[in-house]
Design a protein that fits this description.
Blueprint: H1 7-30, H2 37-51, E1 54-55, E2 74-77, E3 80-82, E4 96-105, E5 108-117, H3 123-142, H4 149-162, E6 173-175, E7 182-186, E8 203-206, E9 209-211, E10 217-219, E11 226-228, E12 234-236, E13 239-244, E14 247-250
Length: 255
């Protein structure tokens, strides 16, 4: 069921958005050559405890997960493109890392993701991150009251196709509110002018993610991490966005 939030409720969601943004900033700053993925998860865990927030991940066990997630952060490296389960891995020079983080603060959820190359970057990885961020920006611009959900999806897909990238439709954006995943599903490609009307009060996580040379994925033996079918690298960008009468409001905007 698609739920609409009142202006007061959207204001109540702002602290969750600000906190998630601060954690993403801290993780991106800390991620570097020689840093263990478990250190990143520990940092997020420490910040959650200090804030008095509640992790959306640690007990998360949807139908596609092999078991409860058990960590508070997704860390996807290189050909791991989504839902990366933090494990004992030390980041190496040139690794492409995506971090995805969601928590509940005072009963309201915010969700965000960002990507970074640690150490010496490959130009094609920087371009992939830029394309992903550009698709997110285009999708946010399309999230106007009176528009349609398909306008958001089309904006993402247009950026991807113009860059010669494929789009995977198995995983995309979603409604956000009292829980991390709700209606509507927000595909990363679609037809403009179609789908649910974008009404003030709708809050969604918009999250384009692309891979260099494929749109096919498979599940790692850990039961969670999704990897590109051909070993190509992936990038991920995400913001929690509220539709307001004045236009889109990015609740997880970072400094």
């Amino acid at each position: 069921m698609i739920e609409l939030r009142t202006p007061t409720q959207i204001e109540e969601m702002r602290p969750a958005g600000r906190f998630v943004a601060s954690v993403i900033d801290a993780l991106i700053a800390k991620a570097d050559v020689g840093v263990n993925l478990l250190e990143l998860d520990a940092l997020a865990h420490e910040m959650i405890r200090a804030e008095g927030a509640e992790s959306c991940y640690i007990d998360y066990h949807p139908s596609f997960g092999a078991s409860p997630f058990g960590k508070v952060l997704c860390t996807s490296v290189n050909d791991a493109v989504l839902h990366g389960l933090p494990h004992d891995y030390v980041l190496a020079d040139g690794d492409l890392l995506s971090v995805d983080f969601a928590v509940s603060v005072d009963g309201w959820v915010a969700d965000s993701a960002a990507s970074k190359v640690v150490g010496t970057p490959r130009e094609e990885d920087l371009q992939l991150i830029e394309i992903t961020e550009r698709a997110l920006a285009a999708a946010i611009e399309a999230a106007q009251p009176g528009g349609r959900l398909g306008d958001i999806s089309y904006a993402i897909g247009t950026v991807a196709r113009s860059a010669g990238l494929g789009v995977n439709l198995q995983f995309g954006g979603h409604g956000v509110g009292r829980t991390m995943h709700g209606d509507p599903h927000v595909p990363n490609d679609g037809r403009p002018g179609r789908g649910f009307e974008l009404k003030p009060g709708l809050v969604i996580a918009i999250e384009p993610w692309f891979m260099h040379t494929t749109d096919e994925i498979y599940t790692d033996p850990d039961g969670w991490t999704l990897r590109s079918q051909d070993g190509s690298r992936g990038a991920h960008a995400e913001h929690t966005v509220a539709i307001t009468a004045d236009g889109p409001l990015v609740l997880t905007a970072r400094d």
